[in-house]
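If you are new to this repository, start here. Below is one unmodified record pulled from the training split, so you can see the exact layout before writing a loader.
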Amino acid sequence: MDMEMLFEEVKEIRRDLHRIPELSFDLPLTSGYIREKLLSYGYEPVKTAGTGWIAVLEGKSGDAVAFRADMDGLKVTEKTGRAFSSKHEGFMHACGHDGHMAMLLGFARCLKSLEQPEKTVVLVFQPAEEGPGGARVIMEERILQKLNVKRIYGFHLYPGLAKGKIGLCSGPFMARNGEFDITVQGESSHAGQPHLGNDALVAAAQMILAIQNILSRNLDPLSPAVIHAGMLHGGSARNIVAGSARIEGTIRAFSRETYEDIKSALKRTVDGIAIMNRAVMDLEIRDFYPEVKNDRILVEEIRSLLSEEEVEIMKPLMLAEDFSFYQEEIPGVFLFLGTGDEAAGQIHPLHHEKFDFEESVLLTGIEMYRRILESLS
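And here is the target side for that same chain:
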């Protein structure tokens, strides 16, 4: 297929999708756009997870290989100044999912110009990666299992890598994660009569400080993990003892065992601080995504397809991704595709209001997908 024509088409797709960011499972415009493109390429897409799509290209054998792109945007007000900036005020594709979709649609287009592959190819367009996790819904629907998918691959654009580099990590790559909320109920009083009240802010402050000891005094120091209190709400005026407060934070770890140890230590700490301060403290923990764990054999296979100049071996990251739900049942690899370009000013991190990338990197991703598929023949 003519690569110049492909680039122009992929660039147009990316910009079209960038203009219409939508959230979670609520993706009517994005979903409709992808469906129309797949139909125009000759596929018969099947709906999944409400607004997602599965497209299948039959291979010579019964086994299948899947490639996944996420579809949803973020609640971010765009400030890139690009002519194709978001038309949806307060929403933006600040995590590169527009690029992921464009890359997979470009790959879908390429597949139609190739000979019938040995393996059946399954293209997964998945909603709600940013939350609450569309991958879990797709796995619960059992559609990939019915299609006999034996391996799965996914890309993520990443400004922390030089433009065009393929980032690989074997084994644990991204963290298991969850959120916690701690509500503190004390007793209000006048600040000039603190003995008549019970200060919820003091209890909350002690809780935040105590959280810092969970990792250093409850976990194996060789087990990487994060517990972070990112928000504190409380009080009504400067001269009133706060009657209530709320702490919100996150937990991340590379193993289920470490993650559960953190949760247990957090519960003990909440109970202890509550007793110390004669306060009522309620802890809610919401588990989100498992850890992304790249299959070591598949990583080595990909590594063998790349030159030293094309690849960068990465350390694990404390980010999280619902691609992990696929990997709980299907061997898979989650790759990074570098977009960092200091000269072009494209250095802003994921989820930033000015995140942007040079679209030629999408051809690098399509080429990587093509190499993977060819290597399976």
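Two things worth knowing about this chain: The first helix runs from residue 3 to 18. DSSP finds ten helices and 16 strands in the chain.
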